[in-house]
Each structure stands twice: as C-alpha cells, then as structure tokens.
Amino acid sequence: xxxxxxxxxxxxxxxxSDIMNVSIKDQFKDAIKSAMGRSVRTKDPMFxxxxxxxxxxxxxxxxxxxxxxGTEDISKxxxxxxxxxxxxxxxxxxxxxxxxxxxxxxxxxxxxxxxAALIKLYCQLNAEGKAEGDLASSCExxxxxxxxxLTAAPRDKTGSIxxxxxxxxxxxxxxxxxxxxFLVLYGNTFGDSSAVELGELQLLNFMKYGCDxxxxxxxxxxxxxxxxxEGAALIIEKRGVLSWGRAAGWIIMGLSxxxxxxxxxxxxxxxxxxxxxxxxxxxxxxxQIQATEGRLDTSATGMIVYGLGGASIDHGxxxxxxxxxxxxxxxxxxxxxxxxxxDFGVHYQNYGHYPWGQGAVLAALSK
Length: 367
Fold this sequence. Notes:
Elements: H1 3-18, H2 24-35, H3 48-67, H4 74-102, H5 112-127, H6 134-152, E1 171-172, H7 173-190, H8 193-209, E2 221-226, E3 234-239, H9 245-255, H10 262-276, H11 298-307, H12 319-326, E4 329-330, E5 333-334, E6 337-338, E7 341-343, E8 346-347, E9 351-352, H13 355-366
Helix pairs in contact: 1-3, 1-4, 1-13, 3-4, 3-5, 3-13, 4-6, 5-6, 5-7, 7-8, 7-9, 9-11, 11-13
C-alpha cells in the first residue's frame, strides 16, 4: 500500500482525536467571528466536520481490511492490521468522549453524516463477526439516537426536514444529502422501511423543488411558502449558488445510497453526467461547479468522487482527478479546501486545511 495513503490515514486519525481540542488562539478567533455574525465551530462531537473525518476513516478501514487476507508479507500484514486497530480506537475514543462529556446528545441534523459513517462501520464489524463488541454496540447506539432526533425534527408541508428550524423553514442540500444517506443506510441495515422512505423523500423533494430544470444541478437550497387564498399552490423559492460544489457533493453522496427509486436513480445518472461536463482541465471541480476556471476545491472534489461509484453511467477514467487531489496533499494534510459557508450565497474564498477536506479526500481515495 502506498506510503502516502498510510500517512494520510494516520493524519486523519490524529485529527479526529484532536478535533474537540480547541486552542486559546482558535477560541479567540471564534469569538471574533461570532461577534461578526460568522459561523464558528460547534461543541458537538458528532457535527459534520467530525463526521467527514469518521467517514474517511471508515472507508479507509474497509479498504485496508480487504487487503489483509491477500498480504503475504508478515510484517506488512501486521502494520496494516495495526492501522485498522488504530482507526477503531480513534473512533471508539471519540464515541466515548461524546457519551461521557456530552451525554450522547444530538444537536443538529448535520450529525446524520457521523451516523451514516458509523452504520458503515457497524456493517464492517458485523461482517467480521464483531457485531456484539463494544464498538459495534456504540455505533448502533449512536445510529439509534440520530434516528430518533431526525424523526422528531421539524419538517415542511412536503415532509422535508428543515435545516435550522429556529431561524427559517429553509431546506438545504447539506441536510437533504446527509439525512437521506443516513436514513436509507439505517433502514436497510436495521430493517426499518419507514426510515428508508423518509430518506428517499428528502431527495425526491429536493429534486422537485431545489434543482435547476435545465442542468439538473442543485441549488444550495429552497423554501416553500403557501400562496394566498384557499387551495393556492405552494410558492417555491430556490436559493443560493447554482451549483455550489459541496452542495453537489452532498446530493450525490445521498443519491449514491438511494438507488432503489427509479426517479432518484435517473436523477443520479443525469447529475453525474452534468457534473462530468464541468470538470476542470486538471480533473478536479471548482468551488462553484460551473466555474471551470475557478480554483479547485478539494472538499467538493473529494465528495463528488466519493459519490460517483453507484451511478449507472460510465464516469470514465478519473485518474487525473485522483492525481489532482494528491497534488493538494502536503505532509499528509489535505490543502485547498474551501472554508465553511455561513449561509446561502456566503462563500468566503478562503482555501486551506479543514477536517471536511481531509475526510472527504480520504473517503474518495479509499473507494
């Protein structure tokens, strides 16, 4: 196995283990950002940046575990087995922190990404005959708590889970992608058909209300309001950038788990086809998909590559895309990721090293 890849895995383990440790300097920066009305990191260990790191590690774990039976070199086999154990320990420690310090609390629908990753880990452990172990039990507990939170979360009139109900009735691509991914995985893993149906509904609604009719590309989100008068049609307002790179990433990641519904499978293939027409010359994707001369965003590119695998259409040779991602890895850290987004249309053009870039790229390179 490539030493670069092993280094990337080890760095991601370190970052997950350190994600809740915020330095005094960063706390001061967060205070300034908060005073300016900008978003800051949360005190939620299951929030999506951690979820992206966990997803990357779980996919890496699966890749490494699959290699173990065919590895004849005893020393190399021991090293790879040790790496799997290190991943398990990092995730187990993170779940213990969430339980012991935060009371296993779920605060946001964005926690669904962590849940999806943990269900994938549960499935790996089950296949290895470890379903009764402590880590598998912790994964199942987390999944159950997230499912409970999502089923109780406010929804709009069509059944879409509202992203931040204390502020608005907006539906975000972030929420639709993450919740659909989690709910379908949860339902299929634990035999709950209502979870699958709720997950599929999130994407069916987004396809209907949140996409560009010509290109099939998603907006960042949408809102529905009732028209005047009895029986008036809903007023649809599509919001944000068409198509923000990570919004496309969220949707394609959700669609990759929701292929049983013909309409979603068709949209998935159309979306993949559309995205491939907007690849930059180096194979990557820009922060805004159609801005092919814009700067490559490693987080969006990693998410899109990760979501390509289940499409029916041939996505062709993506070796250039993979190489573009590796070109942005220095000292085992993924650089070139767009910073956090504060709201519809608020995308500061700051690029650097962030957990969502690290995790997304590791997940993509692991598949």
